[in-house]
């Protein structure tokens, strides 16, 4: 008799589950919009994404985070864009828009090799970091920019 694989959210989420497919497609669209951050100021990108996002506000955060990570990774593989903590955070924040106070945070710390600076982006909901990027940032980075994902803003 084979040992049963432990139940985790990742194991429960099926690639063919309609909810997960809808979340992924929504996240993929946001990942495309997030790529604009290379040439458009961060607050404008956040406003645009917040206006189009919100599709994940009724789902558990780990499920939404997984959709954001998958979409960012697939976008890079399929279309050659970036898959960074900033892109993942823009997508995650967009999906969570409308679920309390959702904020994009960007912080810095001294780099491992002097002289250098490391940057990081993460999302908070009601002041609490969410996802793997948020957990990493809480203790290690000094926040220098915070931008709210406000639903109803931006152009449609």
Characteristics:
single chain, 156 residues, alpha+beta, 6 helices, 4 strands, 18% strand, Lasso peptide biosynthesis B2 protein, McjB-like, McjB_C
Walkthrough of the structure:
By secondary structure, the chain is α+β, with helices and mostly antiparallel strands. It is 47% helix and 18% strand. The chain has one domain (15-148). The chain is built from six helices and four strands. Helix 4 (61-79) packs across helix 5 (85-96). The radius of gyration is 16 Å and the shape is globular. This is Lasso peptide biosynthesis B2 protein.
Which secondary structure elements does this structure contain, and how are they paired or packed?
Elements: H1 9-12, H2 18-34, H3 42-52, H4 61-79, H5 85-96, E1 102-110, E2 117-125, E3 128-130, H6 131-140, E4 142-148
Antiparallel strand pairs: 1-2, 1-4, 2-3
Helix pairs in contact: 2-4, 2-5, 3-5, 4-5
């Amino acid at each position: 008799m084979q040992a049963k694989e432990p139940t985790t959210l990742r194991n429960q989420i099926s690639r063919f589950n309609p909810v997960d497919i809808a979340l992924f497609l929504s996240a993929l669209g946001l990942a495309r919009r997030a790529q604009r951050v290379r040439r458009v100021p961060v607050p404008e990108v956040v406003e645009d994404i917040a206006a189009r996002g919100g599709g994940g506000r009724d789902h558990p955060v780990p499920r939404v985070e997984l959709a954001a990570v998958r979409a960012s990774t697939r976008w890079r593989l399929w279309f050659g864009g970036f898959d960074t903590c900033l892109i993942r955070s823009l997508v995650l924040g967009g999906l969570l828009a409308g679920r309390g106070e959702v904020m994009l945070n960007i912080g810095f710390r001294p780099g491992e090799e002097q002289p250098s600076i490391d940057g990081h982006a993460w999302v908070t909901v009601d002041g609490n970091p969410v996802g793997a990027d948020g957990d990493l940032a809480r203790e290690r980075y000094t926040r220098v920019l915070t931008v709210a994902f406000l639903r109803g803003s931006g152009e449609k």
